[in-house]
Amino acid sequence: MNHAAEQHTQQQQFRSVPLIDAVAQYYALKPQIDEAVLEVFASGNYILGPAVSRFEAAVADYCQVKHAIGVANGTDALLLTLDALGIGPGDEVITSPFTFFASAEVISQAGATPVFVDIRPDSYNLDTAKLEEAITPRTKAIIPVHVFGQMVDMDELMDIAWRYGIPVIEDACQALGASYKGKPAGSIGIAGCFSFFPTKNLGGCGDGGMIVTNDDDLAAKMRILRVHGSSPKYYHSMIGYNSRLDALQAAILQVKLPYLDGWNRRRRELSSLYSERLRDLPLRLPVEQDDRYATYHLYIIQTSRRNELIRFLNERGVASGIYYPIPLHKQEVYAHLHFGSFPEAEHASEGTMALPLYPEMSEDDQVYVLKTVRAFFIERGEAV
């Protein structure tokens, strides 16, 4: 066989495995989703209305809280919560440097200053042992990020926050369905914020977000803030936002919510198999604390050969993603703040990447991913 024919034969053997597959999930629920969407079209209630109210009630029940407030996206969920708490210029808000940019962006949008605390190298979550040293008289909130679907050490964090009288806003955008000592993500702080971006464990067909809280006054204020600060309509008591969960998205998410726990269990099964089959390779694998229930929004591995491995996988049809390539304190927009160094976050940003993971992933596709990852290290003499 000549070289060109051999290459063609090898290419034919390659699979195409996406990082996620939102289309497969739609087709699995197509009749129910289509019916729900058509009901919204027929109702004429496109902004807020019954579909949103029903979904808010369902999420509040799921998270074991009194209130759920649907907003336009997860970023707005964080921003409106900061605004409702009166946080603004001159204030500081503590968060993680190893997360999606929105976690710090909203602090800046509110006029406050982000303050970063380095992460734990095992969970990639904010290191609560380093939290207290970051608190100053200007600290007005703490935003722990339950990154990749595993919750922060909330007992220690809440104890510190309580002693200093600082409200805690849980950035649970990647963690709907996760829990800490039996307490649902989003239910422990004064408020919890979720995203329904299509790639999330509970994803819509567009943007969407939710704030959950047990605080009656805070909930009332956020419901006003999301509609231009008006209550009743055309009477404005504050400067607000145009940030409402779309009724179509609420209807779609209402269909999907009963399946979330099953999807999260499947993510855990797939993640467990990844960890079992990859543990002998020179990789850092996810670590789940015993008192937590992680939902594996992403399956994250860490390697000093990240760029080589990504290229190798891509050539063989396996998608992957870098989460996150630049820690927040090193983003260009924050250069003027001279944050200094957060070595664990920096180290993570140099080596972390996500392997394909989604509930509809087939056994054959996962086996192919595992074999391809192993082949990379075999070729370099680092595995058998």
TrEMBL record:
One of its GO terms (biological process) is polysaccharide biosynthetic process. The keyword rRNA-binding does not apply. One of its GO terms (molecular function) is pyridoxal phosphate binding. Keywords: Pyridoxal phosphate. The keyword DNA-binding does not apply. It holds the Pfam family DegT_DnrJ_EryC1. The active site is at residue 200. The modification N6-(pyridoxal phosphate)lysine is found at residue 200. InterPro entries: DegT/StrS_aminotransferase (IPR000653), PyrdxlP-dep_Trfase (IPR015424), PyrdxlP-dep_Trfase_major (IPR015421), PyrdxlP-dep_Trfase_small (IPR015422). Belongs to the DegT/DnrJ/EryC1 family. This is Transcriptional regulator.
